[in-house]
Design goal:
- With about 775 residues, this protein is an alpha+beta fold.
- The chain has six domains: about 5-125, Beta-Lactamase; about 135-245, Beta-Lactamase, CATH 3.30.450.20; about 250-375, PAS domain (Beta-Lactamase, 2-Layer Sandwich); about 390-455, no CATH class; about 475-630, 2-Layer Sandwich (Heat Shock Protein 90); about 655-770, 3-Layer(aba) Sandwich (Rossmann fold).
- The strands form six sheets. A five-stranded antiparallel sheet has the order 2-1-5-4-3. It has a five-stranded antiparallel sheet with strand order 7-6-10-9-8, sandwiched between helices. Strands 12-11-15-14-13 form a five-stranded antiparallel sheet, sandwiched between helices.
- A hairpin with a 5-residue loop joins β8 and β9.
- The structure holds adenosine-5'-diphosphate (ADP) and magnesium ion.
Length: about 775
């Protein structure tokens, strides 16, 4: 294959579909292809040797000639486009139109260079652009045509030039009817429009859309918001205006306005209601500052308290509050200032004419004011107070009645007993004076029997008062019942069958054995009395665990472990009324002489003092069950030594005993007993008097002391005595304990206790035992 022969280059030069011109360094035409000849109508021969501005004189001084010079002399290439340099070379298209062209100018070869000019025909492409642009205008028209808003174009005199279909819909005019008409047909010379028009023609934009009312063809009005702009075409000025329909918005605004008006009316009505309430209310109402300064009050203040509004306003609320209640007011005000929650409180307010009323307030702080409503609750408070007083009076009278019953009962019983004693002693005295001794012993026995009954009575009273000296120990109940079985059987008689249910494994109970025996005997006798024609008495024991407190009756039974003793009979039972009173002292349904009414009251006192409980169940005609709940004792039970019935009175051998007793007759008796026993006795009326003996070196084998002494009591005296004589044996004598005495908390090693009244035999044997025991 060989390269293109140079002789063919001329044919290529002429065959190119673009204009090609070659110039020499002086700008004279060297080459001019066939395309140039056709486009310019100048043949290659005619062009040869001439400069371009000679061929086309219109090119003289143009950018193209300058570009040629730059290319030839400076080696610079240039592109001259039709859009920047229209009509570069006067060429025509084949169709005879002006040819739109881009021209490139560039140097060829070394200096001095030739210049190649290439002309490209862009007529077709440019036309395509303009067609596109026209199409865009059409799209713009379509937008205007279909716009929902009326769009009008006016000329400078305000005549309608164009109108879109929305105009017809909006105003009822056909678009054609408006063309050439002044815009005043619609706007009727409204000042807002006149002003906007002046602004528009001056060339300034409208600051904001103008609100106008247009008149429709049918005479009705339409609210519009008009935006508009001025524009120019050639020398003419136009204004295009967009008219937006704001009727709906206007309607909504109107509705809102009307709503607001009715709202105001409704609020006004509500306020009037409230005002009526304020005026007519029977509650006192108040608006005050948070410091309590009154701002306004309602007329109820006048009706209820007698105060005028004029007096109240600007005065401190405290001035109308009772002195004692003012701190409560201050506290409430303080509270409300801190938190906005409503408060309820009661204050007594002073009345204008003296006196006061109880007002129950409900108040709330709102901003820096507080609003309060107060109800007059004086009547309720007075009723409450009256009720309280009545209750108190009732309680008092009940107490007095019970007390009267008690003292009356005691006095009656004691009189009987004293009559027996005094009478017997009178007779004895007379017999002795008369020297008749045969019957003396009988009357002495009668007197001492009465005295013993009196002692038993005081013991029962003390039991009821829970002031008896108790000696609680761990007791084996089954064993205890076994010990008095014989006595019980004899007490109830042969008509009554006695059944014992004493299961093994019973817990020991913490109680006073003597008192418990006494109680069981009492219960058995009550059972016997309830079964005059015979029946069955059941004495049963069991272990009981109360998981929860039992609130079955007036006194609750605490949860815990109990040893339970129940005594049931099949007797007459009790009515509800009787049952309610059985624990009352001296309450008895039995004939005089048979019942004391102290049995159950004593049992109640004793069991309660032992931290236990008593419950009674009874059905008329069926029988009664009494249950004693005694607290369980953890640990081994103590066996009681069998009671010694008869024991020869022991004799002493010169031992010394100190007797401290404030009652001279008791002191005399005790000393007498001691002397009879063969002891030396020292006497002291109180603790103070006993001290010298205790601190001396004199022999002392035992101190017998009363517990309730004036000054130093028996316990304190015992402590002092033990400091000097640590091994001194002490026997306490007591009849009554302020706080019931309990052996465990009181008696130490080498100490014993006897209770008054005591049998001289019992005292003597106790003293003997103590002295005989190893120190
Ligand atoms: P007293 O036995 O001296 O009357 P109590 O205090 O022991 O006094 O009893 C008071 C009253 O309770 C008795 O008079 C009797 O009415 C009633 N009462 C007591 N125990 C029974 C019982 N087991 N059955 C029926 N009534 C009883
Ligand atoms: Mg009884």
């Amino acid at each position: 294959m060989t390269r293109l022969e140079p002789q063919f280059l001329g044919a290529v030069f002429d065959g190119v579909d673009a204009g090609l011109i070659v110039l020499d360094p002086a700008g004279r035409v060297l080459g001019w292809n066939a395309w140039m000849a056709v486009g310019s109508g100048v043949s290659a021969d005619a062009a040869f040797g001439h400069r371009l501005d000679e061929i086309f004189p219109t090119l003289l001084g143009t950018r193209l000639i300058a570009a040629i010079t730059e290319a030839v002399t400076g080696g610079v290439s240039s592109l001259l486009t039709h859009s920047l340099h229209s009509g570069l070379l006067p060429l025509k298209t084949r169709a005879g139109q002006d040819l739109i062209q881009n021209v490139t100018v560039r140097p060829i070869g070394a200096e001095p260079a030739l210049c190649l000019i290439q002309i490209t025909d862009v007529t077709v492409a440019t036309e395509r652009d303009s067609i596109l642009r026209k199409r865009q205008n059409a799209r713009y028209d379509a937008v205007v045509e279909s716009a929902p808003n009326a769009i009008l174009t006016l000329d400078a005199s305000g005549m309608v030039q164009t109108a879109n279909p929305a105009v017809a819909r909006e105003f009822g005019y056909a678009a054609k009817e408006l063309l050439g008409q002044p815009i005043d047909v619609l706007f009727d010379g409204q000042p807002a429009w006149a002003e906007a028009w002046t602004t528009l023609l001056s060339g300034a934009p409208l600051a904001r859309p103008v609100e106008l009312i247009a008149r429709r063809k049918d005479g009705s009005s339409s609210f519009l918001e008009v935006s508009a702009a001025r524009w120019r075409s050639d020398t003419r000025t136009f204004v295009t205006a967009i008219l937006r329909d704001v009727n709906e918005r206007r309607a909504a605004e109107e509705a809102l306005r009307r709503l607001n008006q009715t709202l105001e009316r409704r609020v006004a009505e509500r306020t009037a209601d409230r005002d009526r309430m304020w005026r007519l209310s029977t509650d006192v109402m108040l608006v005050a500052r948070l410091d309590g300064t009154i701002q306004s009050t309602n007329p109820a203040w006048k009706h209820i308290l007698g105060w005028d509004e004029a007096t109240l306003i600007h005065a401190p609320l405290a001035a109308f509050v009772m002195l004692e209640d003012r701190p409560r007011l201050q506290a409430a005000l303080h509270d409300m200032a801190r938190s906005r929650t409503p408060r309820l409180f009661e204050l007594r307010l002073r009345k204008h004419d003296g006196g006061n009323r109880h007002i129950a307030w409900s108040a709330v702080a709102d901003g820096d004011l507080l609003q309060a409503v107060g109800r007059d609750v004086t009547a309720e408070r007075e009723a409450q107070a009256a009720l309280l007083t009545a209750e108190e009076a009732l309680r008092q009278s009940q107490k007095m009645e019970a007390l009267g019953q008690l003292t009356g009962g005691i006095a009656h019983d004691f009189n009987n007993l004293l009559t027996g004693i005094i009478g017997a002693m009178d007779i004895v005295k007379r017999r002795i004076t008369a020297g008749r001794y045969e019957d003396v012993e009988r009357f002495m026995d009668a007197a001492s029997a009465s005295a013993h009954r009196a002692a038993a009575l005081t013991h029962r009273l003390l039991a009821f008062a829970r002031r008896q000296p108790l000696d609680p120990q761990s007791v084996d109940i089954n064993h205890l019942i076994g010990g008095i079985e014989e006595l019980l059987l004899r007490s109830v008689g042969e008509q009554v069958v006695v059944e014992f249910r004493l299961p093994p494994g019973l817990w020991p109970a913490m109680t006073d054995a003597n008192q418990l025996e006494n109680a069981l005997l009492n219960l058995a006798i009550n059972g016997r009395d309830a079964m005059p024609h015979g029946g069955r008495l059941t004495i049963a024991t069991e272990n009981l665990v109360l998981e929860e407190a039992d609130h079955g009756s007036a006194t609750a039974i605490a949860a815990g472990e109990y040893t339970l003793i129940s005594v049931s009979d099949t007797g007459v039972g009790m009515t509800r009324e009787t049952l309610a009173k059985v624990f009352d002292p001296f309450f008895t349904t039995k004939p005089i002489g048979q019942g004391t009414g102290l049995g159950l009251s004593m049992i109640y006192g004793f069991v309660m003092q032992s931290n236990g409980h008593v419950r009674i169940e009874s059905t008329v005609g069926q029988g009664t069950t009494v249950r004693l709940y005694l607290p369980r004792h953890h640990g081994a039970s103590v066996q009681r030594p069998p009671q010694i019935v008869a024991k020869p009175i022991p004799k002493g051998s010169g031992e010394t005993v100190l007797v401290v007793e404030d009652d001279p007759s008791v002191r005399l008796l005790v000393s007498e007993v001691l002397r009879e026993l063969g002891y030396t006795s020292l006497e002291a009326a109180d603790g103070q008097a006993a001290l010298p003996v205790l601190t001396s070196n004199a022999r002392l084998d035992l101190m017998v002391t009363d517990v309730g002494l004036p000054g130093l009591n028996g316990r304190q005296l015992a402590e002092i005595a033990r400091q000097h004589r640590p091994k001194l044996k002490i026997l306490f004598v007591t009849g009554y304990a302020e706080h019931a005495l309990e052996r465990g908390t009181f008696l130490g090693e080498g100490m014993e206790m006897v209770t008054k009244p005591f049998a001289l035999d019992a005292l003597a044997s106790k003293i003997r035992d103590m002295i005989a025991a190893a120190p």
